[in-house]
Amino acid sequence: MLQKNQIVELKITDLSYQAMGVGHYQGLTIFVNNALPGETVRAKLLKVKKKFAFARIEKILVESPDRVKVPLRQWLQTGLASLAHMTYDRQLEFKRQQVVNLLEKAHLEEQISVSQTLASPKPVRYRNKAQVPVRQVRGQLEIGFFRRHSHDLVPMEDFLTTAPGIDQILVKVRDILRQYQVPAYDELHNRGQVRYLDVRRSQATGEIMVILVCRQKNFPQLEAVVHRISKLPKVVSVVLNHNPDKTNVILGKHDYVLWGQQQITDKIGELKFKISPQSFFQINSLQTPRLYQLAIDKAELGPTDTVIDAYSGIGTIGLSVAKRVKCVLGVESVEPAVRDAQANAKLNGIDNAEYLCGKAEVVMPQWAAEGLQTDAIFVDPPRKGLTPEFIKAAVATDPAKIVYVSCNPATLVRDLQEFAELGYETDQIDPVDMFPQTPHVESVTVLERTEK
Ligand code: SAH
Questions:
Q1: Which of 155, 224, 253, 400 has its CA 20 to 30 A from that of 390?
Q2: Does ligand 1 have an atom closer than 6 angstroms to the CB of 276?
């Protein structure tokens, strides 16, 4: 029987979907942090369960040719970038292989091919947003990232995945909080103030929004702190997000703009987009237009088409096609995002797009029941994917194409099986790397009606 702290020597044969090296030892599957397939490692067991164990590398005995030196030690410690020890080319292949493996499990690998993963124009410093925890470490307020599988903060100043400009602002805000002795959040006792810093930067204009996620709506130093942050270069908006709960969820429900603009404005292609604090916006500014282009080209739209933009966020996909179709109907569950989408239509002189607030799985069946007929449907759901109700209703509106933008290939493959039963099929999945250095897999799939 293996035990915690025991040292084992094993060969790594695989990489888990969370980018852990996988090996076997005495009938147990062992997940080893930061180990790569092809490597032989001496590993220390951190946790031993009945059928599997977690371990940490003590020494790499045989190194993989795919291994690269990680530019930032904290990348691997924290899991901020848990694929960063692999060459970028191999990361892209790893992502493709994730999709292939899932198709094989579903016995779909013969029908559906998976293209090469579309590389991100920038493999580092690609994020237009950083959301970093704030904690007290050895008596001092620090920003950083949590050590893997824990809530211990590893202090950091340079995140390397974020676009230039963001890291500097994070550090300056940290220094202001220190100077005014604002207490960092203490999650054990639900005390202290600042839980997270959330900084968003527009790639197009350089405008920066700073969101302080705080336990209380007000505290003695708040006014002075906001004033100081408002003087930082390029900051156009300072927001307090109120999150009083004992929870792992980062943002609370309510935002208070304490200084400056309600939104920042960014661009995708020719279109301008206003983004509110709670609204989703794709984080890889250079890759997003390429993701959308792929999705839109495959939809083969025309001027008589009725198009649905489901899980629409601030309307980025629907508004990008509005001018070449008859009309766009969007649905999104976060109210500020819906208001942004409506405002963004106006901002870009688009009058044939309508955005509704609601749950897509509820609104879609209503549209279907009202007899709505569509030509193309874009769906871009969160990780949990679509529901059977949504899928049935989408099919009932009889679209020629359904374009599925997915951030989780496991639920994508599940949903493709559901669609197939209702006569919509695909023969290709295109992975697009939106999150270099991490194991996240984004992809675009077009489903077409197979019989009529
Ligand atoms: N298509 C947009 C947003 C994609 S992210 C873009 O590319 O920017 C997914 C969006 O789905 C988020 O805005 C989220 O708020 C929204 N969402 C989550 N669950 C939903 C649901 N059940 N119904 C409608 N929208 C939902």
A1: 253
A2: no
The answer to whether residue 75 sits within a structural domain is no
Average pLDDT value for residue range 436-449: 97
What is the number of residues in the chain?
452
**Are residues 261 and 296 both part of a single domain?**
no
Roughly how many angstroms between the first and final C-alpha of the chain, as a whole number? 59
Q: pLDDT band for position 72 (50/70/90)?
A: confident
**Same domain for 251 and 303?**
no
CA of 314 to the centre of ligand 1 (A): 9
Residue 411 sits in the same domain as residue 338: yes
| Domains contained in the chain, number | 3
Bridge-based pairing of strands 306-310 and 271-275 is unpaired
pTM for the predicted model, two decimal places: 0.95
335 C-beta closer than 6 A to ligand 1: no
- Half-sphere exposure (CA, 13 Å, Cβ side) for 89? 3
Residue 311, ligand 1, Cβ within 6 A: yes
Choose, from 214, 327, 357, 407, the residue flagged as catalytic: 407
Whether 200 contacts 206, CB under 8 Å? no
379 in contact with ligand 1, CB cutoff 6 A:
no
- Both 306 and 444 in one domain: the answer is yes
Whether the Cβ atoms of residue 16 and residue 34 lie closer than 8 Å to each other: no
Please compute, for residue 314, the number of CA atoms within 13 A of its CA located in the half-sphere on the CB side: 25
Q: How many whole angstroms separate alpha carbon 58 and alpha carbon 15?
A: 18
Active-site residue, 407 included? yes
* Nearest by Cα to 163 from 204, 192, 193, 194: 204
What's the maximum distance between 2 C-alpha atoms anywhere in the chain? 68
- What pLDDT was estimated at residue 452? 54
246 lies in a domain?
A: yes
Kindly report the average pLDDT of the chain as a whole number. Answer: 96
Q: Whose Cα sits closest to atom 10 in ligand 1?
A: 311
Residue 275 Cα to ligand 1 midpoint, Å, equals 14
DSSP string, 119-178: PPS-SSS-BSEEEEEEEEETTEEEEEEEPTTS--EEE-S--SSBPTTHHHHHHHHHHHHH
Domain of residue 58 covers 7-67
In a domain, 275, yes or no: no
Q: For residue 257, how far is its CA from the centre of ligand 1 (angstroms)? A: 23
What percent of the chain is helix, strand and coil (3-state, nearest 5)?
Answer: 25, 35, 40
